# Entry
Amino acid sequence: MAAKRATVTCPECDLTETFDKLATARSFIESHRSETGHDPTWELHRLAPGVERAGDEAGVCGRPSCTTEDSPLYRG
Ligand SMILES: [Zn+2]
# Structure
């Protein structure tokens, strides 16, 4: 199964494209914008950035030494 990471949509030309790499989606947006003057948006098929950042802050090991203490996910 190919995990699609992002869907780019352009309301001005009814465009919908899915991408499995954020970098590809980002460059597609850039080129579509410069080629057409449209303003496409993307929807990420992931956690919201803030939630993702909190997950990062919680750390892969969970030890206090590598966890941001003011993160809501910090467990001491
Ligand atoms: Zn467009």
Q: What stands out?
A: Strands lie at 6-10, 15-19, 41-44. Residues 1-45 form one domain. The longest strand covers residues 6-10.
